[in-house]
Task: structure prediction
Amino acid sequence: MNSPCVEFEGRRLTKGYGYIKGKLAHRDTWEKANGPIPKGLLVLHSCDNPPCINLEHLFLGTCQDNTDDKMRKGRNPSRIGSSNGRALLTEDDARDIHLLFMQGMTAPQIAERYLVTADTLRCLKSGFRWKHIHKEFHCEAD
Result:
C-alpha cells in the first residue's frame, strides 16, 4: 500500500464511512471495479480509514477477518463499563447499585437516585450490561 488514501467527498455516516446511492461508498467503489461482493464477505480497509475509497486499500474478508485485523492492529478498545462512551454509571456506581438491589431496593427506586432508567438497572442486575461487575456479585459454576 504505497498510494495515499482517496477519501470520499460526499455524505458521510457517523463513523466517517462514505455513503452514496443507499450503500457504503467503499462497497460501491469495489463493486464498480470488481463486480458483486460475494455473500458473507465484507469490503475491508487495509488503511483503517473509513472514508477511503482507494481500491489499493480495499480487500474482501469475513467478519472474523475484520475482527482479527482490528485485534492485530490494536484497534479494539475496551468498551465495557465506564470506558463505553455512552455509559452513565461508573464501576463504583454499578457495585453500589448491586448492593442496593441486595438490600431490597427496586429498580425504579434506584433509578431515581442515579438518574437512569429502571430498564438500565434491570440490565445491570441481570448481567446483560456490566458483566464484569455482575460477576463480582454472582458465583458462576465451574
Notes: Residues 19-72 form one domain. Strands lie at 19-20, 23-24, 42-45, 58-61.
